[in-house]
């Protein structure tokens, strides 16, 4: 996508006009997500900046392709970073032992690993049948089986459960057969 390359190249060349546009158009959604999920505006700013840096560093090291819109990719990176922040703070609060803070480099490496896992999952999801994609999207959004039956015209909830099981199994096989799986599984 041409627009994606424009944004990626703008990050590499520090094109302030395009980066400001990117910030103006995408930050409000990130801020809303972070605030709705136990954060503050400052947290959203940190997450947004980290995601921009993460994408920029990754693109500088390995020219990768974004299969969705850049905006969706950026938002997903921000969501993943914020969820990791929430999980880290939860571990710090619940652990009685001293918690060693990961340094910024480790944090970036983990964020990159998480992003690559997400990409593998999405690519694999796109490679299964449209029916399975729809079934799993409903399942992953915690849609009740009764609604899945209604939306997809299945005969019963048992049929819907069986279909979810078969689709999850197919997706799992595709992911495990991908050469990237073993590398991304570690850590």
UniProtKB/TrEMBL annotation:
Keyword NAD: no
BP term (GO), one: DNA-templated transcription initiation
Entry keywords, A to Z: DNA-binding, Sigma factor, Transcription, Transcription regulation
Pfam families: Sigma70_r2
Keyword DNA-binding belongs to the record: yes
Molecular function GO terms recorded: DNA binding; sigma factor activity
InterPro entries attached to this UniProt entry: RNA_pol_sigma-70-like (IPR039425), RNA_pol_sigma-70_dom (IPR014284), RNA_pol_sigma70_r2 (IPR007627), RNA_pol_sigma_r2 (IPR013325)
Domain (RNA polymerase sigma-70 region) ranges: 22-92
Name the UniProt record assigns to this protein: RNA polymerase sigma-70 region 2 domain-containing protein
Species this protein is from: Patiriisocius marinistellae
């Amino acid at each position: 996508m041409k627009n994606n390359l424009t944004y990626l190249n703008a990050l590499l060349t520090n094109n302030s006009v395009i980066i400001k546009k990117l910030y103006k158009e995408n930050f409000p959604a990130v801020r809303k997500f972070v605030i709705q999920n136990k954060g503050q505006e400052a947290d959203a700013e940190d997450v947004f900046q980290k995601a921009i840096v993460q994408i920029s560093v990754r693109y500088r090291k390995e020219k990768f392709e974004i299969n969705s819109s850049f905006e969706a990719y950026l938002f997903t990176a921000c969501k993943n970073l914020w969820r990791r922040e929430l999980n880290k703070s939860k571990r710090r609060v619940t652990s009685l032992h001293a918690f060693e803070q990961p340094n910024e480099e480790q944090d970036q490496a983990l964020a990159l690993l998480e992003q690559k896992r997400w990409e593998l999952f999405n690519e694999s999801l796109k490679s299964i049948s449209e029916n399975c994609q729809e079934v799993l999207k409903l399942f992953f959004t915690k849609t009740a089986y009764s609604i899945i039956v209604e939306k997809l015209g299945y005969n019963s909830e048992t049929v819907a459960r069986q279909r979810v099981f078969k689709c999850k199994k197919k997706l799992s096989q595709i992911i495990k057969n991908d050469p990237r799986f073993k590398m991304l599984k570690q850590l």
